[in-house]
Design a protein that fits this description.
2 copies of one chain form a homodimer.
Chain A: E1 2-6, H1 15-27, E2 32-37, H2 39-46, E3 58-62, H3 73-79, H4 84-93, E4 99-102, H5 106-117, E5 127-134, E6 137-142, H6 152-170, E7 176-180, H7 191-202, E8 206-211, E9 223-225, H8 228-253, H9 257-265, H10 267-276, E10 284-288, E11 293-297, H11 303-318, H12 321-334
Parallel strand pairs in A: 1-2, 1-4, 2-3, 4-11, 6-9, 7-8, 7-9
Antiparallel strand pairs in A: 5-6, 5-10, 10-11
Chain lengths: ~350, ~350
């Protein structure tokens, strides 16, 4: 299976993508990687690794441009046609690669993937599905930030795609879906939230109703659905608090030698929680709904995170995620109840 | 100074409100409390405390009804005219009390306060200002959930009120204000977020631009402004994650006797972080913008949290918060640039 990797994306590029690609090639013998980016820099970076045994499964595809964080996502697709993100997606479009992985600009990845690959039949909007640690496992938040102003019908699509992905990748019983809201009653929230609630009740999913942030980590549902603005606020806020709490514990521990000794004894516990809440472990976030497998890795991805994003791409291909999504969306198009209302 | 306390509101009523009132009366000799609720139950609850020295400053005002969590906020004002929340607010309206404190139904408190007390001159919408722990202090998030669909003009009002409250209660230099958004650039976010950004740039505040959740706990600003839906999602999410992380650390510590021993040695560090992230400490959330001091305590308030909410009410009265807000809003009404545009 060929996977195109945007080797110029992310805070630590090309080092992290290249090192992550090498790790992935060692761990997954069925994977071939097309490294996309500046040929000279990538060759120089690759020379720091022992790739002799991997060369048959590793190619460089030159791309002369890089999308900066300051670029607008949509503009970058039009103006930087030879960017590593665009070129990597082109490889999926042409059928040369089965999936694309990038730690680069999220907006550019979403825009380029949506424009070049288009959405799947029956899907109007793509969405980012982010795995988040919770008591006894993980849940999937969708949308993590691809669509800031979706309609209630788009939210139904996100819920279906999230359910399909969760079950395909994590197994278990049929995934329960909750709507991220500010109260559990159906009457709670904005007009938009109320409309989403009504639509989700009729959707071909296992809808558990509204879910609030303070109960979410007890994992009452496997899939949490919301618009991309709310989802992105949620993700960044918990990321910020997790880091802050670790820092506060460290500060307090430093205050006495006894505490420092104690902290050394329970170092393993801290490390376990740190690795549990680490974005590395859940490195790969699928952009669900585009006609091709597209995985976003965190901007500050380490080599391990890149390797895990490649693993996520491989799983998505192996589990035929996209044909499952198309199939799961069928009832929405066959049943007039589920059709988009002209008023929406 | 007389403070009306809704003694029937919150998860642990009337025990917590009554015990909290007794603590507050002991700690703040200038405070008198009007306990509002079922006379028989309150007398019985009071008999469990030694209130001999406090009797001159403590009265019960009977209210026969209680707003349940299942009630709609607005309906409760119309249908439960003799609820403890409504009656407590009536005492502020009539001038008998200078402030009201309630751990009850947030929606009912916001609705009753807005309808009965009305908003301050120049303010169209009230908002909840929530103090949140961060590196080296606290920041104020406004709106925590009073208004789910505000206009950009309302957001400007929230920013002004938040700045005034922060400076009056916490002192320091002029408060910096950030707009909670999903990126730092002015072009980031929904159309609403972009409009808010433009209005905040012209507002009589120290606007620092957009702020993202993962940087927020480093306290780059003193006041974080957003709509009530986003603010409430933020609050509940970080509350949920803080509890989950404490639970995960406990689980991991339990896994070996060495870790348990280590955890005992750094118990003080854990307790310091726990108290720092506790809602008890910052127990009182002002509903800013209504014509009267109105403090919301957390639903699961302990007696200490109620006492601290009473302390917050006392501070707000002493610091003449409301006249300062009216004054700070003046430039918005004098300068045509700041006036509401007909298009908004």
């Amino acid at each position: 299976m060929k996977i195109a990797l945007d080797a110029m994306g992310g805070d630590h590029s090309p080092q992290s993508p290249v090192a992550g690609a090498v790790e992935a090639l060692r761990d997954f013998p069925d994977v071939e990687i097309l490294l996309v980016g500046d040929q000279t820099r990538l060759q120089s970076e690759l020379s720091r690794h022992d790739t002799r045994a991997l060369q048959a499964r590793l190619q460089i595809r030159h791309a002369s441009q890089v999308v900066d964080m300051a670029d607008s996502g949509l503009d970058s697709v039009r103006r930087k046609k030879d960017s590593s993100i665009s070129r990597a997606i082109d490889l999926v479009k042409s059928g040369e690669a089965e999936a694309v992985v990038s730690a680069g600009h999220t907006g550019a990845l979403v825009a380029a993937a949506t424009i070049k690959l288009r959405t799947l039949p029956g899907i109007d909007r793509a969405a980012l599905g982010v795995l988040i640690p919770a008591d006894g496992g993980v849940f999937l938040l969708i949308d993590g930030g691809a669509n800031l102003d979706p309609s209630p019908e788009h939210i139904v699509g996100f819920a279906v795609m999230g359910s399909v992905y969760y079950q395909a990748i994590l197994g278990g019983n049929r995934a329960r879906v909750g709507l991220l809201n500010i109260g559990t009653e159906p009457t709670k929230g904005t007009e938009f939230a109320k409309q989403c609630f009504a639509r989700l009740q009729e959707a071909p999913i296992l809808f558990s109703g509204n879910i609030e942030g303070h109960g979410i980590f007890k994992k009452p549902v496997e899939v949490v659905v919301c618009d991309g603005f709310t989802g992105n606020i949620f993700l960044k806020s918990i990321e910020g608090l997790a880091k802050a709490m670790v820092g506060w514990i460290k500060d307090e521990v430093q205050k006495s030698p006894v505490r420092i000794a104690g902290a050394l004894l329970c170092k393993g516990a801290f490390q376990a929680v740190k690795s549990r809440t680490s974005t590395e472990e859940y490195g790969g976030t699928p952009l669900l709904g585009v006609n091709g497998i597209c995985i976003k890795a965190h901007g500050n991805s380490s080599p391990v995170a890149i390797r895990n994003a490649i693993r996520a791409a491989r799983s998505a291909v192996k589990n035929s995620i996209n044909s499952r999504i198309v199939e799961a969306m069928q009832p929405l198009h066959e049943n007039p109840l589920h059709r988009e209302s002209p008023a929406a």
